[in-house]
Write a structure and sequence with these properties.
This protein is α+β, with helices and mostly antiparallel strands. It has one domain. It has five helices and six strands, in the order αααβββααβββ. Strands 1, 2, 3, 4, 5 and 6 form a six-stranded mixed beta sheet that branches. β5 and β6 form a beta hairpin. The radius of gyration is 20 Å and the shape is globular. Keywords: Signal.
């Protein structure tokens, strides 16, 4: 009985795995980031701003944007009607100068937020690490870098992070 149950479970799992891996033929050559962007119904203007941001980052020949997903912001409270975050995960020798330049990252984040009516947060991250810099839309309508509040020592926080706050280990 145990062998039959195992065989049925294995077949069921294989069927489930093949279902979860199937994609529509029209999307066969589409990247995961493009599928996510499509799923969030980003406007043509927004997609163009994301492409422009990616191209601007990749002007540095020693830097590659390896992922640029759009997902939900990781905060309980965020600007009304703007529940999405646009991330750029960077890799290569040119990453450190970008991640150390708040001015450059802000100049890339602003057009993305201004052209994407559902995006309130743009994150830049070093791929494969926990180094992330966040820029978000504030209540005064300006885009600014998030900061780690005093008294916070990652990974231990005395309270949940609020909009405008972000900490790197």
């Amino acid at each position: 009985m145990t062998n039959k149950l195992f065989a049925i479970t294995a077949v069921s799992l294989l069927s489930l795995a093949s279902l979860s891996l199937s994609i529509m033929p029209s999307e066969a050559n589409t990247t995961t980031a493009q599928l996510k962007n499509k799923r969030f119904n980003l406007t043509k203007k927004c997609r163009a701003a994301i492409t422009t941001a990616t191209n601007r980052l990749e002007k540095n020949p020693s830097l590659k944007v390896v992922q640029s997903p759009t997902d939900r912001v990781p905060y309980d409270y965020y600007p009304q009607g703007r529940p999405h975050r646009q991330s750029f995960y960077l890799q290569g020798a040119g990453v450190k100068p970008i991640m150390n330049s708040s001015v450059l990252m802000a100049s890339i984040a602003k057009p993305v937020i201004n052209n994407c009516n559902s995006v309130s947060l743009v994150s830049f991250g070093t791929f494969g690490t926990d180094w992330i810099e966040d820029f978000g839309l504030m209540s005064n309508g300006k885009v600014q870098q998030f900061n780690c509040p005093s008294g916070f020592a990652p990974p231990f926080y005395p309270r949940p992070l609020r909009w405008g706050e972000s900490c790197n280990p």
